[in-house]
UniProtKB/TrEMBL annotation:
Protein's name according to its UniProt entry: Cytochrome c5 family protein
Source organism, top-level taxon: Bacteria
Protein species of origin: Microbulbifer harenosus
Signal peptide (UniProt feature, chain positions): 1-20
Domain Cytochrome c: 58-138
Keyword Lipid metabolism found: no
InterPro entries xref list: Cyt_c-like_dom, Cyt_c-like_dom_sf, Cyt_CIE
Keywords, sorted A to Z: Electron transport, Heme, Iron, Metal-binding, Signal, Transport
Length: 139
């Protein structure tokens, strides 16, 4: 009888250890496949925190700063058909359409260009300042 009880006790310990290992493995897998970040939609609590963080960074960024940090990725190289910074020939027809059109395209996206050039932390005024910077340097 004692042998049977020892055997049952050993099985219980082994089953508990196996469950702990399985739980540990499940936790490790969940950690490895967890999303790298999260989406924060307008109206969510996290959305209210983003503008406050940007505002605390010292105010509006200059057009040159926004261009260097975001726009240059495409406009310095001509990626996806973006008019290159300083290329008067490429910018001329665009400038002829008027600044309001350029602002609208920059803010809302146009052809291959995404809205705000993907600078979702940029205010509309900062994006417009970047457009002004590119236009002034591309005439």
């Amino acid at each position: 009888m004692r042998v049977v009880l020892n055997f049952v006790a050993a099985l219980a310990v082994a089953a508990g250890a196996a469950m702990a290992v399985a739980q540990s493995v499940d936790e490790q897998i969940a950690e490895r496949i967890a999303p790298a970040g999260q989406t924060c939609m307008k109206g969510d609590e996290c959305a209210a925190a983003a503008p406050a963080a940007a505002a605390s960074s010292g105010g509006a960024r200059s057009g040159s700063d926004v261009y260097s940090g975001h726009c240059a990725a495409c406009h310095a190289t001509g990626a996806a058909g973006a008019p290159k910074f300083g290329d008067a020939g490429a910018w001329g027809p665009r400038i002829a359409k008027g600044m309001d059109t350029l602002y609208t395209h920059a803010l809302n996206g146009f052809n291959a260009m995404p809205a705000k050039g993907l600078c979702m932390t940029c205010s509309d005024d900062e994006v417009k300042a970047a457009v002004d910077h590119m236009v002034e340097n591309s005439k």
